[in-house]
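hiii, so i know i said id send this last week but things got crazy w the move. better late than never?? heres the sequnce for the chain we talked about at the cafe, plus the structure i predicted for it. fair warning i was half asleep when i ran it
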Amino acid sequence: MFQASNFTPAKGLSNPHMQTMVAKWLTQKDLIPTVRETLELPDGDFVDLTWTETPEASDTKPIVVLLHGLQGCEYSHYVKSMFKAVVQKGWIGVLIHFRGCSGKPNRLAHSYHSGFTYDIRYFTEQLKSRYQHCKFAAIGYSLGGNVLTKYLAETPDSPYECATVICAPLHLSSCSAKINSGFSKIYQNYLLKLLKRETEKKIKLGIIKSITLNELKHIKTMWEFDNKVTAPLNGFDNAEHYYSESSGIKVLNQITKPCLIIHAQDDPFLSHKEITAINTLPDNVTFEVSTTGGHVGFLTGNSPFKPQYWLATKVPQFLQDFL
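okay and structure toks below
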């Protein structure tokens, strides 16, 4: 079902770009102790995990799995703030880095994309096998939210008691167009810089051979990158084929576990009209839409100088009913 959000932006921070940008700096000092683990994958590649603590085999604490956004990592503001909230609840948090996002290039030519569920599926199987006395929940942000949506739809018997999807590009084609328009091009340029830098490393290492450094240099939009890099490296015909096959909006009605989707109408990364163009939703899926919030911003409170991260309260409140 669709429902309106009770989110209220912090005074002076109602602008979507302020919400998006200020949130990035809000958690600069919110560091908690973490533990790194490298998980070897069956296809010969690896992903790095970041835990708030290493669980024991006999542990009964709930484990909350986080999936970050495009080129995110353990230092992303939303990861740090949620790790802090998870620890305060007495739970254990773990972030699964997408391939190539933990500071080291992955070994294979393909890395990750919005519909790539192989890694979360394998990791979840390991999680279930290792910690048989724990309950599990999952949170996906932005691109990671779309990946989580796809995984939940593909795996109706997953061990996750519940999940939250935040600011996900559920309709990839329109979101690619949105980030290439107006002020949003600033975000596109920033993300492209990161993506091209990581791709350049893999070209120089001889891992990627389907595109040259010169061709990569001349890519100017997210659509071009997906068309010339993401799609061919991951078995898609072109960008539109990738977008069509990977968009989470097509499989929302296949999710069987309790799921809260959080979306801001003014998100500068996402196309609101297409993402909310859904006729029916299963009873277990709640699609909460706020008027403001930006992209993974959702800063609230009485002062623009000391805003509060609303998601760090909202999401745990939802999860605790099932954990």
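btw The first strand starts at residue 2 and ends at 4. thought thatd interest u
miss u guys!!
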